[in-house]
Amino acid sequence: MSRCIETHQRTLVELLNSASHDDAALLPLARAAGRVLARDLVAKADLPPLANSQMDGFAVRVADLTPSVPPQPGDAEGIELPVADVRPAGAEPARHTPGTVTAVMTGAVLPEGADAVIPVERVRPPRFDVPAVTISPDVARSVTEGTFVRAAGSDVARGAVALPAGTRLGAAALGACAALGLGPGTEVSVRTGPRVVVVSGGDEIAPDGHAPRPGMYHDANGPLLAAWLSEAGAESVTRVRVDDDPDAFVRALDHVVTEARPHLVITSGGISAGAFEVVRQGLEREGRDTWFDHVAMQPGGPQGHGTFRGVPVICLPGNPVSTWVSCEVFVRPALAAAWGCCPSPRWFTAELGEAVRPLDTRTQLRRGSMEHPGDGTVPRVRLVGGASSHLLSAAAHADVLVRIPPGEHELAAGTTVAVLPVDGGVLPAGAADGTERTGEPA
User: Transmembrane region positions (predicted)?
Assistant: First the structure.
């Protein structure tokens, strides 16, 4: 039974996460967005640095909320305390006067001597421009030390690990760095992109710089993979050409792994059911933990993976469009998860601009071009070229991949489908993003 797309995605993420990620570089935070920390980031100060109010309200001593004598019949219901001071956020720390309340705004430093905050809406009158406030018995009983107080170091304590190695520097993580006092010029240690070896070729592929004789072709996959990996943040790409000789393939791979010390090897072609499947034959003999089979998709059905001399190997199909689609659907989420050198795939939704007949049992990943209506309506996508995996020139005109789920019935124009921007493709404003996931379209 064919493997589903999501299972193969997760498998490759696990494979690449098992690789060495020891190489690191220092980058200023301003250039580190989306990268992955190579070292623990230790807090040099408490966050927050001082106890502060979680609410707009009144700072109190809990001890002042218990009357010294029991209330008598006719007494006003509740405890009346004068407002001694007003402290906005950003004001210098101050002392709290016992037997009073201090008006504090959200984020204001808790006055020394106070140990709780009562929200303004829970006192009478619920205002700040008054000389005193009354706190009802029910409210007084609900207040304990620390109520609505953000304790110093409650987010992260000084000397503790604020962001562990492996954390992706997304918006929240970069916000935490700023809160800890790290400016845009502060350098952090981040993982570099991987060193990648790309293997392409076959007896039918002419060497670079040579005119192909009849029956041969120019190598599209080597340049395609090198360009794609460079755009995806690879530190370096080393290309290797092989013929349909498993022994020569293993020798060439052994040599380049020793010389280039790659983090990852990516091959194209030679993995299906033919008589000259050099990659499959070589890795099944010399590799480890190999898997070669089909994923329930078109194009890109034949897929494989394993390790060679301890280096992860991702094996892609050889038809150029299949290679390219596999990079976007499988290699990109794996690189994003393991190295953080490229953004994770972000699937969105759009409406089909034309009717499409799906395959019975396999997901199609068709190439498409977005229409930009500019009027706030749901974006539409029209297919570019046919479904065949050799139509590389047509694919070059696409700016999205269109996920057509399997089924027996034609999808009418206007049907909602998942789309993935590729090669710099950008969806128009207002595009729905309900299917957005890390490499896992709905």
Answer: none
